[in-house]
Amino acid sequence: MSHSLQALDRAHHLHPFTDFKALGEEGSRIIERAEGVYIHDAEGNRLLDGMAGLWCVNLGYGRVELVTAATEQMRRLPYYNNFFKTTHPPAVRLAEKLCALAPAHLNHVFFTGSGSEANDTVLRMVRRYWTLKGKPEKHWVIGRENGYHGSTVAGMSLGGMAPMHDQGGPCVPGITHVRQPYWFGEGRFGDVRDQDPEAFGRQCAAAIEEKILELGEETVAAFIAEPVQGAGGAIMPPASYWPAVKEVLSRYDILLVVDEVICGFGRLGEWFGSVHYDLAPDLMPIAKGLSSGYLPIGGVLVGDRVADTLIQEGGEFFHGFTYSGHPVCAAVALKNLELMEAEGVVERVRDELGPYLARRWATLADHPLVGEARSLGLMGALELIDPASGERFDKALAAGNLCRDISFRRGLVMRSVGDTMIIAPPLVITREQIDDLVTLAREALDETARCLVPRAADEPQPEERPA
Ligand code: PXG
């Protein structure tokens, strides 16, 4: 059965972020069902899902309450829109719940179908806001290199993923990027070497000010960033970074957009990454964990400063999506948030599971392949290095992809971003399952070492490298 599905997949299905030809030759892995923190493939293998799907299945798989919420809403009202002065109970209740959970100054939400649409909405709102304020010259948005804000044209342009710009450009005009606060990649290795992490964090914040002055201080509308970069490699900025960024932005009266698509809804041990870092954003795009990924829904939480202007001075805002606030998605998201609250999921990540993962994950730092093991809440990263040289591996070896493939084969979904291995498991993972995750990660590192650096391993078996 799985072979015929693979053949049909190859024949008709273009996968996201995929080399179509290479996948066609290899064949895709078919995931058939899941429960808790485990997924099951068509070959009968069970894997610990160390990535919560794609950073989204925060409550884990198989939650019947979410299925019931969807079914009931589908029966009652499967679709209606929020255009033309109408609304429906799920959208209203979800809006109220989100504003209650968010920091006090965020009292409005605009719904979208995804994180990418949320960031398109951000760009529209930011520019509209400054025009309404009589400052249309304030139109530049500063993002960060290796930031990720989605795959629509605006999302891609706000993000700083060079390979996406190369394929999808020219980007939306008026968007530019500054250095990311990636100490291991750019402050220890890379062009700035062996720098103190806090000095590096301040230098990255100073790069924003330099960019503002280069563009003209009257022309910058907003700065957009993830609290912790997710797709870029689970990059937690040095402690000095965010306070210095906030100071620069307030000095030049620039809006702060904090993209919470990954960090929101408990990932970092608070409802929002902005709470962990004390950011008070003007705009906060959300998606993914909002519904634990059970149905697609996103949105932008809008702070009073921007909302008041759009409401009082804006007239009609010519923007919206057919599925903005879709009733079934909204009903599921609301139930998801209620379950997270009732079960104390976020507090458990902050007080128990995050610190536990941090202790267990840190034990991997002694592995010869690991240059750094870092985590925050239930997000973690391992930086792979070549033990022979103490430097990063030759890119041609694709060490991260090798380690990821080995990890999958051994029963752990661990992602690679270059030579950075990352995890972000469901927030309902238990301590025992965290132990299993760390054990499987170590085994994957051991096998990767045997493939890549036979000298450093106990039993040199270079032929072990899988096809
Ligand atoms: N902002 C952030 C911070 C994201 O991580 C988006 C916006 C876009 O959301 P949608 O729902 O439009 O995909 C994201 C999405 C990866 C990966 O490989 C990460 C995302 C999407 C796909 C792959 O880590 N994040």
TrEMBL record:
One Pfam family hit: Aminotran_3
UniProtKB keywords: Aminotransferase, Pyridoxal phosphate, Transferase
Keyword Nuclease attached: no
Cofactor annotation: pyridoxal 5'-phosphate
CDD domains recorded: OAT_like
Tree of life domain: Bacteria
Family to which this protein belongs: Belongs to the class-III pyridoxal-phosphate-dependent aminotransferase family.
Protein name: Aspartate aminotransferase family protein
